[in-house]
Amino acid sequence: MPLSFFLKPAEKSAALGDIYPSYRSCAGKIKASPWTLAAPSYVWPDTVAANCRLLEGLFPEVGILLFETESSLEYTDSDLPPWLSDLDLRYHVHLPLDLPWGKGFDAAFSKIEKLAAKVAFLSPRAFVLHPPPERSLVAETALRWRKLGLDPEILLLENTRECGALQTLEYASALGLGLCLDLGHLLAYEQFSPAGEAFWDRVRMLHVSAPEGPGQSGHLCLSRLDAPGRDLLRSMLARIRRDTVITLELFNEPDLFTSVDVLSAWSREWGFVR
């Protein structure tokens, strides 16, 4: 366990600033952002808890990654300890990528319900879902979500290879759900995002990273974005609501910190930050 895990945010900033010069500069850039910037719960090869402890005092929000259904269901208090709710962090949750939709709706949604109960103590502001392509499954998910007493607008449908931006908008508009727009997926899968106000009003979160190339989303540093990618990001930032959360989907420290620097510089260049 790194020593910084045990330090208070101010002490941690000073200690890590000696090792990673960008740590303290990133904190100021994150605070100056006109949008809430979030980091994933996997940046360092450690537990969710350890990552959140290290991210406290740097990012205001962390996305709890529950990418694998069964291993996430097996999380214990060492992974998701009660003291996480005492940290100076807000949270959102990314639901699994391998939900068993092929076994039927009940098999998949029972996993969602159990995971939602497991993280309820964190009062997540949103849950991101890679939706199944079948409209009937998404509609049933929205119905059951409401029956759990959860706000449908905090269930965010993310555009994926299987379910693009236009399709997620159709589902979200019809069912009263929110949207999570992924920049890397738009670029990798050559998807188009609608330009209407109704679309952008439903976008509550952006996932930003650079794709590896056509058909390969990957999660590369923002510095790897080409000119069309930068233009698309700029147009997205010009359209999103100010309460939209921007999650930097980078899963290692150098790419995460560099992407903060890059996003901060572009935000100033494009006139979003004075």
Written account of the structure:
This protein has 274 residues and is an alpha/beta fold. It has a single domain, classed as Alpha-Beta Barrel (TIM Barrel). It contains 11 helices and 8 strands. The protein has an 8-stranded parallel barrel. Helix 2 packs across helix 11 (253-269). The model is unreliable at 1-21 (pLDDT under 50).
SSE blueprint:
Layout: H1 9-19, H2 22-32, E1 36-40, H3 48-55, E2 61-65, H4 69-73, E3 90-94, H5 105-118, E4 127-129, H6 135-147, E5 155-158, H7 165-175, E6 178-182, H8 183-188, H9 197-202, E7 203-208, H10 227-239, E8 245-248, H11 253-269
Parallel strand pairs: 1-2, 1-8, 2-3, 3-4, 4-5, 5-6, 6-7, 7-8
Helix pairs in contact: 2-11
- What structural class do the secondary elements suggest? alpha/beta
Give, in spatial order, the strands making up the sheet with the most strands. Answer: 1-2-3-4-5-6-7-8
CATH class: Alpha Beta
User: For the terminal residues, how far apart are their CA atoms?
Assistant: 39 Å
Order of helices and strands: HHEHEHEHEHEHEHHEHEH
* Average pLDDT figure: 91
In percent, how helical is the residue content?
A: 40-55%
